Amino acid sequence: MDLPVMPPVKPMLAKSAAAIPPGMLYEGKWDGFRAIVFRDGAEVDIGSRTGKPLTRYFPEVVEAVRAELPPRAVVDGEIVIAREGRLDFDALLERIHPADSRVRQLAERTPASLVAFDLLALGDRSLMADPQTWRRQALVDALGPARAPVHVAPATTDVELARRWFEQYEGAGLDGVVAKPTDVGYRPDERVMIKVKHERTADCVLAGFRWHKSGPIVGSLLLGLHDAAGRLQHVGVCASFPMRRREELVAELEPLRMESAEGHPWADWAEAEPGGRMPGAQSRWSAGKNLSWIPLRPERVLEVAYDHMQGDRFRHTAQFRRWRPDRDPAGCSYAQLEEPVGYDLGDILR
Predict the structure, then answer these.
(1) What whole-number distance in Å separates Cα of residue 77 and Cα of residue 115?
(2) How far apart are CA 32 and CA 251, in angstroms?
(3) Burial code of 251-273, b = ≥16 C-beta within 10 A, e = fewer?
(4) For the chain, what is the domain count?
(5) Catalytic one of 15, 29, 197, 289
(6) CATH number at residue 226
(7) SUPFAM superfamilies of this UniProt entry (predicted)?
(8) Do the domain assignments include residue 258?
(9) Is 298:263 a contact under the CB 8 Å cutoff?
(10) Engineered SS bond to 107: which of 21, 60, 294, 347, CB 3.0-4.6 Å?
(11) CA gap 224, 204 in Å, rounded
(12) Predicted structure pTM score
């Protein structure tokens, strides 16, 4: 491979904001695997956000790149999987599997797509110093004729349209809007863009915690919600605390600590299947990590902020908002969660 931009390249990043800023280029925020795709003839390399290769996990995307991208190009985009008209991140996670036979089986069963939103090189020329607006036009010109499963992400400079996308696209599994300065070059690993994500709140049961990796202070709080059958399900963690607050939480939670998990709603976590929902369940993603946890009597409720759900759990780490001593833990259920209005992913990528 001999391109004007060579792997690895770390992608340009975004910082969070509460509102969509005016005067920028806007795109949907895709919920998939960020990917920098390098093509030089038959040679294809797909790098992840961390620089690790994704190439072997998505053979159908490699074939699509060979068929639909220009012969020599470097593209920034997102690998996604769609099911029933919306993005499915769980299906994407299944693709990171050590067995090549399993990867190829899933590639046929749940094929992935590439959504391209930036062009870093074309032919013998690097575009990384060019302004965003120039790169966007070059992307549209180069990939406009591309066919599925390669798509060019919709983009606009109309802030009012971006605000409508923010509301509509969530129904297709996207998790917000990204705003890009129009006059800047591509800056790897710098938070130049703006991301605006949905934020909702939920009252959750505090059912345990994990120690922080640095020592005997609270690392994360384990959150639960009751399902329709009344069983407390592990739905995610809340972990964004200053170090001093983590120390205070140890003493604050001491009266709720249980000597063992016996009698706890999650007492059977040790028998959970790999990838299961209990907080101690191992998976290929958590290999080598300390997943031990301290059970707490599920008697306390906290309000957390979250962006969106991935199946029946929070997609990202939730943010602590406040304790809710006025709430009964038994009333903390999935029924309180807001469901976005459905929106067909095909209408976005058409």
Answers:
(1) 5
(2) 39
(3) eebeebeeeebeebbbeebeebe
(4) 2
(5) 29
(6) 2.40.50.140
(7) DNA ligase/mRNA capping enzyme, catalytic domain, Nucleic acid-binding proteins
(8) yes
(9) no
(10) 60
(11) 6
(12) 0.76
